[in-house]
Amino acid sequence: MAKNKNTFLGPVVALSVVILMVVAFLAARQHFGPKPGDPGTVTNISIGGPFSLTDQDGNAVTDKDFQGKYLLVYFGYTYCPDVCPTSLSAIGRAMEILEAQAPEKAKRIQPAFITIDPERDTPALMKSYVKNFHPRMVGLTGTVDQIAAAAKAYRVYFSKVVEKGAKPAGYLMDHSSITYVMGPNGKFVTHFGHGTTPEAMAEKLAALK
Ligand code: NI
What we know:
Layout: H1 2-32, E1 52-54, E2 60-62, E3 70-76, H2 83-101, H3 103-107, E4 109-115, H4 123-130, E5 138-140, H5 144-153, E6 158-161, E7 172-175, E8 179-182, E9 188-192, H6 198-206
Parallel strand pairs: 3-4, 4-5
Antiparallel strand pairs: 1-2, 3-8, 6-7, 8-9
Helix pairs in contact: 2-6
The structure holds nickel (II) ion (NI).
Nickel (II) ion (NI) binds at residues 76-77, 80, 83-84, 175.
């Protein structure tokens, strides 16, 4: 009996040690290696920066055009089946809540949608899309390089997903789903992770100086 117990305990202890080491390793990696697009780990790395894009009316715009206002910015694409419409609806609803509660504050916030699918998202398409979510939302697109640069500055991950047998234009885009709040000076203020309610967003926006 005692012998059986010992031969059983040895492997259990060894396995426990291995499991603890793995847990410690994963915890350390989580802590020291923030993954781009992970809302839990973006606070101490620089987010945002200069960008040159084209708005929904075909005008060339840069980050400087938005300075003086808070920029509430989300990256996605108009063909997105669910994630982008959900996030943009939340932004639109948060703006409505804020407009009802603190209209002067709401005026200082510029909601913006930046496409990560510039090959399909033309300014005209962006124009018809963004107005579904908020009357003042701007839709920004650009060349493939301009979009790649903007996404990189905001540490937004995106990748084209072509399903087997799909038509050439029938691809999806994998992308991170984070709403950034940039300050009137263009610097990162805070972010809202995917699934943040409009009420929670409006409350945080109302607290901006
Ligand atoms: Ni999307």
